[in-house]
């Protein structure tokens, strides 16, 4: 993989992880019930996608 491509892939992974952290913080502090569950699930999916992008950037 081209070094510039690896850079952008890693930036996407970092961004997804940061967005997941912000979303889970918002969900836990400001929401209740099923909305909290849906936002937490979305944050978990973004965290997993960020992990995949991070691993792909290292390969």
From TrEMBL:
Annotated transmembrane regions: 6-27, 34-56
Presence of the UniProt keyword Membrane in the record: yes
Entries under InterPro entries matching the protein: DUF2768
Keywords: Membrane, Transmembrane, Transmembrane helix
Protein name per UniProt: DUF2768 domain-containing protein
Record organism: Cohnella pontilimi
